[in-house]
Specification:
With about 350 residues, the chain is of the alpha/beta class. About 50% of the residues lie in helices and about 15% in strands. It contains 15 helices and twelve strands. The chain has helices at about 25-40, 55-70, 100-110, 110-125, 125-135, 150-155, 160-170, 180-185, 190-205, 225-230, 230-240, 245-255, 260, 275-330, 330-335, and strands at about 5-10, 15, 45-50, 75-80, 95, 145, 175-180, 210-215, 265-270, 335-340, 345-350, 360. The protein has a seven-stranded parallel β-sheet with strand order 5-4-6-3-7-8-9, sandwiched between helices. A three-stranded antiparallel β-sheet has the order 10-11-12. A two-stranded antiparallel ribbon has the order 1-2. α3 (about 100-110) crosses α4 and α11 packs antiparallel against α12 (about 245-255).
Length: about 350
């Protein structure tokens, strides 16, 4: 059910990930490294499109692709939904060409959701090839759009989704775009709170710049939702009209999420008509700037701490080995013993344990 990752160019031609048999001298490589340090490489902004099923993720990506072509903005598209029958855009990399979703279901006796999760896990094992393709085009494209599975939990709470997100975030400015179905959200304060709680949990889990895109504003304006985020009394008034048991919980959570609302970007868009797309790109650029100013220093700090802890651990291990060798004159640390044959010939061999194992 698996095959190598395939990249498609804009003209539909394929490019397999192959190694070129060209070698460079040491002097040339050093010169290129020095030039690379002097000139900072251009990096595309990665937009991970996530959201509840039916919120319009794929349609929004089609609109972004159309906008990119119209304004001649170089972009790169990845489709990570293995179960989708047809997409309204031409992805450069498509998971369906690497992993056969239905074959995965048959082979592992899985249902639809299990099949999607397993297909994504299999694809994640070859994500190094994907990053290789993206790296080759990194200086040519401005945006890299990633369409995720319709079942939001498959991507946001799975190991493969975390691997893909962290891999992108460690190499390129990465922004999470949470798509919300505006008509359903503004008609129910409980649905609105459910979306906000899910968005809050994803943002704090990933710790990446976050944008809430209220989609389908051509049907219903998102002003009600944004007012609920900024005006506590307006939301309480809407909650008071709901007499269900959920209203009490929703009322309590509105106070908890107050800090979340202050630090989140929101934008109203229409995937169908293109309304609000310009503001969407302004939010993306602002989020990318936040990535450079906040996320990258935080990542560098974590890497430095991890390197220091690793060095300290190695230092303790070396000190421990030296002490054991000094105390036992090298015999205990080596874990060796003498073994002789019938002719009286002896040799040093690994020490055998009572359970039949060997200490090397």
């Amino acid at each position: 059910e698996e095959s190598n990752v395939t990249q498609r160019d804009q003209d539909g031609s394929e490019d397999q990930d192959s190694k070129k048999g060209q070698s460079k001298t040491t002097g040339t490589m050093k010169k290129e490294e020095e030039e690379g340090k002097k000139k900072k490489k251009k990096k595309p902004i990665v937009c991970l499109i996530i959201g509840m099923a039916g919120s319009g993720k794929t349609t929004l990506l089609q609109r972004l692709n159309s906008h990119s072509h119209q304004h001649k903005i170089p972009s790169y598209i990845l489709n990570l939904d293995p179960a989708v029958a047809k997409v309204p855009y031409s992805p450069n990399i498509d998971i369906r060409e690497t992993v056969q979703y239905k074959e995965v279901m048959k082979q592992y006796n899985l249902g639809p959701n299990g099949g999607i999760l397993t297909a994504l896990n299999l694809f994640a094992t070859r994500f190094g090839q994907v990053m290789g393709f993206v790296d080759k085009r990194a200086e040519e494209v401005k945006y890299c759009y990633v369409d995720t599975p319709g079942q939001i939990e498959v991507f946001t709470w799975s190991a493969s989704g975390q691997i893909i997100t962290e891999t992108f975030a460690s190499s390129y400015p990465t922004v999470l775009v949470y798509v919300v179905d505006t008509p359903r959200t503004v008609n129910s304060p409980t649905t609105f709170m459910s979306n906000m709680m899910y968005a809050c949990s994803i943002m704090y889990k990933s710790q990446l710049p976050f944008i809430i895109a209220f989609n389908k504003v051509e049907v219903t304006s998102h002003e009600t939702a944004t007012r609920w985020m900024t005006d506590f009394d307006a939301f309480q008034e809407a909650i008071n009209q709901d007499k269900s048991y959920m209203s009490t919980f929703t009322r309590s959570m509105s106070l908890v999420l107050d800090e979340f609302y202050k630090n989140i970007r929101t934008v109203g868009v229409s995937a169908a008509t293109g309304l609000g797309i310009d503001k969407f790109y302004e939010a993306v650029e602002s989020a990318a700037k936040e990535y450079e100013e906040v996320f990258m220093p935080m990542m560098e700090k974590k890497r430095k701490l991890a390197a220091e802890r690793k060095a300290e651990k190695e230092k303790r291990e070396i000190a421990k080995i030296k002490k054991e060798m000094q105390d036992s004159k090298g015999l205990k640390a080596m874990n060796h013993e003498d073994e002789g044959d019938e002719g009286g010939n002896y040799k040093r061999v690994p020490k055998r344990m009572p359970d039949g194992g060997i200490h090397l």
